[in-house]
Amino acid sequence: MSNAHPTGASVSSAVLPSERCTAAWSVLANVPDPELPTVSLCDLGIVRDVHVDGGVLQVVLTPTYSGCPATEVISHSVQEALLGAGLGPVSVKQQLAPAWTTDWISESGREKLLASGIAPPNGNASMASTGQAQPLRFFSRPVACPRCGSGRTERLSAYGSTACKSMHRCLACLEPFEHFKPI
Predict the structure, then answer these.
(1) Which of 43, 25, 18, 39 is nearest to 81 (CA)?
(2) Whole domain around residue 135: which residue ranges?
(3) Is the pTM above the cut of 0.85?
């Protein structure tokens, strides 16, 4: 027996909610961020929760910032991927608090950014080992070049191709690169 959904997607009623959530996480691990397609929404830490409520797969997303222009595209991509995998019906909810921070980017996500020529955020943006909010000291740290690894770099512009990145240049290899700004 299956539960039909208006979009035509259906999920078998024999599938346990926990199995459905596990399958959803697997699907979402492959949904790319529209502005940073080398990393997934899960790599960025945008997907905060997946659970089943009343037969509906609920996905909770926290945008990188409340005015992110890709928010609608991300929600649509999540729904499309999950419905395409037969995991519907699906509902996507935005949760703005706690606010997203670059600390939520996975180690795999940081490696993927680096491999694509984008310097990942350096340091811990919001917490020290005490778990308490700390003054933002990461701006004084040098940004290592993602191409040659040199710490001899300079910022050219506070903004790159998106508001979450800045433009830098390596003084060793002279290559320009973007840096994902810590938030």
Answers:
(1) 25
(2) 104-180
(3) no
